[in-house]
Amino acid sequence: MRRPADIAAVVIGRNEGARLIACLEALRGQVGRMVYVDSGSTDGSQQAAITRGAELVQLDTDRPFTAARARNAGFAHLMQGGQTARYVQFLDGDCALQPGWIEAARSFLDKSPQAAVACGRRRERFPEASVYNRLIDAEWDTALGRTRSCGGDALIRVGALKEVGGYNPDLIAGEEPELCVRLRAKGWEIWRLDVEMTLHDAALTRFGQWWQRTRRGGYAFAQGAAMHGAPPERHCVPALRRIILWGLALPLVTVLGAFVTPWALLLLLAWPLQVVRLWWRGMPWARALFLTLAKLPEAQGALTYWWRRLTRARARLIEYK
């Protein structure tokens, strides 16, 4: 298959091991250039990438590693030397590209000059491995058509990305929706196509991993609302309101009320009732349970962001694997 010279790829990762090898093997031959950006791996990822034809970029340790910073570094590497790529396929190192995606996404962007981003169907490689993998697989099942944001895997128009200055390197999570806020403000469109795009290997097998991942999401919601929460965008505001209600206000009122009357403990029934309500509306019971429970780690993440902002503490990654 002829490699399209006007499409390049940026893959980011840290200690992804066999997942990175699968990612690069699936990508080989589909793009003109592959760049792998490594964030301090100790498992031989750097040599594995070079062996498979990728250009290696290693982030230094002067600042915290973030996915946004890694993607920017890969994109900057591509821009050196007057390269001519029109589109860049961004990939996380735990994802493998599906056959036919590049052709479909490129064709769509060629025909849609206002579209800055094309993303497709992302699915879990092993949804049966754990309830947490199944939850993430359901999380990827989002609406098709013109949308407000994309995830880490997407084919992006180089000119649009340059116009908005790339990803925000200060974000430890939620960098893709924030990028899309700025793209849409410039008149660009984000599209999700009904095409298989990537297989993702979350490798979540423990409750603690799920908790940390969800906590990171709460941090991203709080930071996103702080950056773009004003009208008309209201970025992350609805999600943050739910976090405050279910993850902060309800537990706090219950605990304080219990000092006045034990009847206040009845407020705790709101949690199982919410699970039943979601299940009654057609949501699988496990997803309803974890979606309700998620408000606690999300609240913890939001509090972490607010505390770091108040104390001007240095941002640090919230890792879950």
Layout: helices, strands, pairs:
Elements (H helix, E strand, L loop, with lengths): L6 E7 L4 H10 L5 E6 L6 H7 L3 E4 L8 H13 L7 E6 L2 E3 L3 H11 L3 E10 L6 H9 L5 E3 L6 E4 H6 L11 H11 L3 E12 L6 H22 L8 H22 L11 H11 L4 H9 L1 H17 L10
Keywords:
2 domains; Spore Coat Polysaccharide Biosynthesis Protein SpsA, Chain A; single chain; 9 strands; globular; 321 residues; 12 helices; nine-stranded mixed beta sheet; alpha/beta
- The number of helices is 12
Number of strands: 9
Which CATH class of the largest domain is shown?
Answer: Alpha Beta
Order of helices and strands: EHEHEHEEHEHEEHHEHHHHH
Mean pLDDT: 92
Largest sheet: 9 strands, mixed
* Corresponding CATH superfamily of the largest domain: Spore Coat Polysaccharide Biosynthesis Protein SpsA, Chain A
Distance from N terminus to C terminus (CA atoms, Å) equals 35 Å
CATH topology of the largest domain: Spore Coat Polysaccharide Biosynthesis Protein SpsA, Chain A
Rg of Cα set: 21 Å
Strand content: 15-25%
Q: What's the CATH architecture of the largest domain?
A: Alpha-Beta Complex
> How many domains is the backbone divided into?
2
Low-confidence stretches: none
Proportion of helical residues? 40-55%
